[in-house]
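Possible race condition, two jobs.
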Amino acid sequence: MNISVDKLDELNTTIIIDLEKQDYQEKVEKELKKAQKNASVKGFRPGKAPLGMVQKLYGRAILAEEIQQAASEALNNYITENKLDILGYPISSERVASDIDIEGKESFKFAFDLGLAPSFDLNISAKDSLTLFEVTVSDKEVDEDIEYARKRYGKMEDVETSELEDIIYCTLTELNDDGGPLDGGVGAKPASLVAGMIEDEALKSTLTGVQKGNTFSVNIFQLFNNNDTVISSTLGIPKEGVKDLNMNFELVVTELKRRTVAELNEEYYKEVFGPEDFPANEAEYRERIKANLENYYKNEAELWLDHEIGHIILEKHSLQLPDNFLKRWLVSTKPETYTAENIDEKYAQESSALQRRLVIDKIAEQAAIEPTEADIREEARVYYLGLYRQYGLTMMPDDNFLDNTINQRLGEREFVQQMADRVIYRKAYDHVKTMVNIKTQKVSVEEYFKHVNSHKHEHAE
């Protein structure tokens, strides 16, 4: 066996493996004897067919498999022994032709292209400055949160005449050019809407102060602010069919509902906080709301600091990658996601994520970050609690249920790796906070969101 290297540049290389008969023949013969023992050939008892006949029947397939196996093992050993830091996995070379046609041959050549990780040093230090915002919650934010909660916990009641924020239940019927129901069109489809959400001022005014039984001719596109997704969902038609709708619809009001604002009393406090630990009065209620908001914005500010660290990681390390190799690798290994037609468009996101991962790995290496079993278990707990909140569960599952769920998932290698990666990222970000200069700045809620929105606009996020 001979292994040679055809290096294109610092990021791209080709490993060439030349196999001779002695490199694979022993294994081929061993596999042929195995096949002979198990072969069922007409005219012979099971396992008694001559080796030559087994060779004719199975020899080509066994040879093809064994030379592939020998080449793969040689490649993996070479990568390990030479400590090559590769990206993705080796793929068949497009620069050097392989010669693996087994017909009448004993020598074979395998050529694999490899993408190599760039060599770089960390460029993060105390010269880099980040801001951790301390968001001040004012009475205004407390009032707004209480108002929202009171509406949320309020009751729905029927009304005779609608106001701007009332819910209008209605039926919608597609009309023809003569003003009658369109044959084959949308017919008396139940729907609901709020006049205050309509952008067209004339239509908003028309649908304010309506009563049950009122009938209107409306422009369906204006009614739902030209949102094809909302229109298709409301009318129960495919999204691509929206453009074929007649714009004129008949709207018949069937019901009017108004959400009342909940009273600030013991019943309300129990409903919001539970029957065991609820505020005794309005002043205590306001204090709890303020504390909840302060905790919320503290978490938001810490998450935003992590977001800024993500930018520093990329901006301070402009890494070159073997882009052409990685594009080929993505198309060949994930054809359900990447194709020759979309790879250029989608590659930017993959490239950014890979560059961030390389820097994270460098930080983890220098800081000796290794996820422990306890780290992975705790990360799994955080993961599931976040998942439950995302699904809107207000009552968290008990510890036994959560532990059983986590124990099951920790038996899955892929899940363990996912949690280990999350631990490494979190610890690496925390380590960066010890490397840079972090200054605190008190801001109002309005100032905080102004900064966040400005940043997102600047970076097209």
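Job #2 (started ~2 s after job #1):
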Amino acid sequence: MRAMPDFVHLHCHTQYSLLDGASSISDMMDKAVRDGQKGVALTDHGNMFGAFKFVSEARKRQLTPIVGCEFYLVEDRHKKVFSRAKGEQDHRYHQLLLAKNKTGYENLSKLCSLGFIQGLYGKFPRIDKELLQQYHEGVIATSCCIGAEIPQAILQGKLEDAEAKLRWWLDLFGEDFYIELQRHRGMEDIDGTGRSQEYVNQVLLGFAQKYSLKVICTNDSHYVNEEDALPHDILLCINTGAHLEDIDRFRFPSSDFYFKTQEEMNRLFEDVPQAVDYTQELLGKIEPLDLARDVLLPAFPLPPEFSSQDEYLRHLTMEGAKRRYGTVTPQILERLNFELDVIRNSGYPGYFLIVQDFTSTARQMGVSVGPGRGSAAGSAVAYCIGITNVDPIKYDLLFERFLNPERVSMPDIDIDFDDEGRDKVIDYVINKYGRNQVAQIVTYGTMAAK
């Protein structure tokens, strides 16, 4: 009797598939550990927002993290105008890609970024095959789910077209292309085609035999346990602006879209046992990823008469002290020298120079700038160079709350701009320092039981 082979989940959506995935990364991994699984994949829709936390949480549990993404694939990522009169539509297909190694991770990151920068249409970051040809090294691809281009062609009865599409992927990815099988209840008649998910599977298995392709099985996991199907359904209602009782709203066809156990997956694919085996082979291709990086500090362009950022920051600070205080007393000088030494030893002069640059420019443009918020108001250097307008010496504010020489961490300078002027400041920073050197960061709001 054949022993139950190990299974690895390779198609998993978490809460970072916004308003579509309901799996907590930690809960999903805890279930994987309890079930004796050796690895797990992260494949959120169109983004890799959860990658850093995912890799970190996997390491804590001695799991192999497989970083991936389920992209939105279109014919032309640049096209964003469609004519209904001409019957034009934005045909988006799902496409699963997994990173084998550091190069693959970097290429997935590039694809994600370009999807948002060049391909964003509505709320969908889209990529195309032109990008895939540029950024496929180190990447594993699959035939993906029922929403992918090969399964969609099969559903429409266009088997020759489906096979031609398969050959394109095979030519590009070679041995790193896998046929993907899924089995979910409620998929007997998809989109009124009269064809089922199992029909698609059988055609894919035929292709696999013809081209000697390896087959993997996955479950389109959107929540951790089967009983989470209702909360997930509520999430979909929020996403689509619908009510639970609406008859024709978007919904999943069953409660099958959860993080199944190895036993459940082996039982589900007992007629295709190699599909379970090859999930382990794929896992064996994955190289360890370390996503932690040292802070990359900005390079501020110096005036020609200054040789270092530290020298220029000291100059601006002392000139600013004269304007702020009139007379620079020994007490003030001692405080400034102490702060400047800590800033220099921590490697942050460039950071201070850039912040003072755009706050000073903002005021020159007539943009209202906040007087100082958070621990940065405790810095006399920040006060002297115009970042803040609160005198920390007068109010006996501690610099060490902002930047502690005993425990150096990246300082966080909170700046407030008025609503109308904020975009002007962002445009200034982008134009001066380069679009590829500037990014905005997101803060996630989460929903939980009260």
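The chain has two domains: 25-80+87-284, 309-437.
Logs attached separately.
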